[in-house]
Amino acid sequence: MQQREEKQLEASVDSLISLVALTKTALQNFIYKLENEYERLTWPNVLDNFGLLSGQLNTINKMLKNEKTPSFRSQVIIPLLLSQKPDDDLTVLTEQRVPVFSHEIVPDYLRTKPDPEVEEQEKQLSTEAARIGPDVAQKQIQALNKMCSNLLEKLNNPRDDRDAESAASRLNKPSFNPGDTNALVAAVAFGKGLSKCRPPGPMAPGHPGQGPMMSGGPTLQQVTIGGGGGQQAGMGGPVAPQQQGQPGKMPSSIKTNIKSASGSMHPYNR
């Protein structure tokens, strides 16, 4: 009976070691892809790797919960030999992670309880959880479930619906100010709001209305068209009275007065 249990334990340990090795290989491949092939890695590939790891972990849990698997909790591991010298067989077995099986690493590798600090934090959390009443805990659970439901609903919505909603929001949102548009149209069409003052600029010291281009140098006096003898030009001063024309000819009503340029006002005088 004892030999049968030992053989069953050895077979279970071998099966567990093989399953753990497969899980370790899959995890190493996934980490390698994340570190070296992240540019070509897509989200469906990441989900496939997570699914593979999850399936292998579930297989290990099913094996441990199987009735034919002996209880590993009842088995005790006792270190028979501790040494400060490197052990080649141990190095190969642990893939160069544990070269020496000494008293410094035995408490970490053969520990059956968490670290004292972790155990103390766990006790504090258990104490705080015991202080919360059932009603407060139920309210917190309902609030957390509501938040998770809203988050899952947003994540499960199709991408097309989200794109349609964003497009509709962009179409409904005005991209201009109606008040500014109406003011601009009124200013262009009717001159509303525009200033009536003349833009600033140098004025000639002579006659009003004469621009800066007519302030100096030889100028032509305004041409007047009219039949009255006392009519004067607006800018050139008095015009000579109309002379009587010769018989049989129509008197000319166009009078001009050309002011000659002096030598000092010549534009090319140097």
Mean pLDDT: 76
The total count of helices amounts to 8
Q: What's the overall geometry?
A: elongated
- The count of DSSP E runs of length 2 or more, i.e. the number of strands, is 4
- Give the H and E element order: HHHHHHHHEEEE
Oligomer: single chain
Strand order of the largest sheet: 1-4
Overall helicity? 40-55%
Structural class: mainly alpha
List low-confidence stretches. 204-245
Quote the distance from N terminus to C terminus.
134 Å
* Strand percent estimate: under 5%
Overview features:
single chain, 270 residues, mainly alpha, two-stranded antiparallel ribbon, two-stranded antiparallel sheet, 50% helix
Overall description:
The chain is built from eight helices and four strands, in the order H-H-H-H-H-H-H-H-E-E-E-E. The model is unreliable at 204-245 (pLDDT under 50). The chain is mainly α and 270 residues long. The protein is elongated and about 110 Å long. The strands form two sheets. The protein has a two-stranded antiparallel sheet. Strands 2-3 form a two-stranded antiparallel sheet.
Write a short abstract of this structure.
The chain is mainly α and 270 residues long.
Secondary-structure map:
Elements: H1 2-36, H2 43-65, H3 88-93, H4 106-109, H5 116-131, H6 134-156, H7 159-172, H8 178-190, E1 224-225, E2 232-233, E3 237-238, E4 254-255
Antiparallel strand pairs: 1-4, 2-3
